[in-house]
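Example record for the data management plan.
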Amino acid sequence: MGEENNITITKEQRMVVAVDESEESMHALSWCLTNLLSSSSSSGATTTTLYLLYVKPPLPVYSSLHPAGYLFTGDIVRKIENYGRELTHSVMSRAESVYRSYNINNIKVEKKVGTGDAKDVICFAVEKLKADVLVMGSHDYGFFKRALLGSVSDYCAKHVKCPLVVVKSPKN
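Corresponding structural encoding:
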């Protein structure tokens, strides 16, 4: 009767961090590792999967009937595809070096790459991965740029079903 039963409840937590070639996204990843993951991993009660999500823009599609179709020969298409692969590798390598510099335990990192309109791909991935939180950097566009281009984070805030953290980079 003198024995104690220690019961540890573990919960799997899933975080998606949207990364791209910008400094803002790498700052958001650093912020996430410092503020969301460092404290949760120290307790040991939570196992976290951190998904690094990069969205490649879609390749332009031209048919031979399209007036600009002659511009995109097989060689050019292959070069565009190679550039996309190199850019993906570069972004993911940068994100991995940011992650590795924190040396946090109890975290599993998975890299995910999607192709298409960033806002749609991010929302789809968050739902498909059953994310508990989405972390994104803010490009901090002004009113006019945001009105013309739209804001990926604004769109995601309206469409994802999990909490969204938008991390603004400090002004230099």
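Summary line stored alongside the record: The two ends are 62 Å apart (CA to CA).
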